[in-house]
Specification:
The radius of gyration is 14 Å and the shape is globular. The longest helix has 8 residues. It starts with 9 loop residues before the first helix and ends with a strand. Helices cover 7% and strands 40% of the residues. It is mostly beta strands. It has a single domain, classed as Jelly Rolls.
Length: 109
């Protein structure tokens, strides 16, 4: 692996984009935060889930964002929003909190 913009090979980058850095199952009312340097890239609802205010979108603007992109453009922060079983949300979150239900969280960079 090289450094900087070419830190990962093409294959590694694709795998990371699919959440192959790991996953976490959340079914209680705690807030999950991924390991340092990583973010949650997808949330799959396993049982109807209500998200709490601890669900925070990443604030870093990434390549391809419009000029002047601001916090929340990579994903959205949720507060008391409910999602049905089978829903998959894609974005970049630094923390996820649910007040009911169950979700599977997929980790990336």
């Amino acid at each position: 692996m090289a450094g900087g913009i070419h830190k990962y090979t093409s294959s590694e980058s694709q795998n990371i984009g699919l959440g192959q850095l790991g996953s976490a199952y959340l079914s209680d009312t705690s807030t999950y935060s991924p390991p340092s340097g990583q973010v949650i890239i997808a949330i799959q609802v396993i049982d109807d889930a209500v998200f709490g205010s601890g669900t925070v979108g990443e604030s870093t603007a990434h390549t391809g964002q419009a000029t002047g992109a601001t916090a929340g453009t990579n994903s959205d922060a949720f507060g008391s929003d409910s999602f049905a079983v089978g829903t998959t949300l894609y974005g970049r979150w630094t923390g996820v909190h649910i007040t009911s239900g169950a979700v599977m969280l997929y980790i990336g960079v």
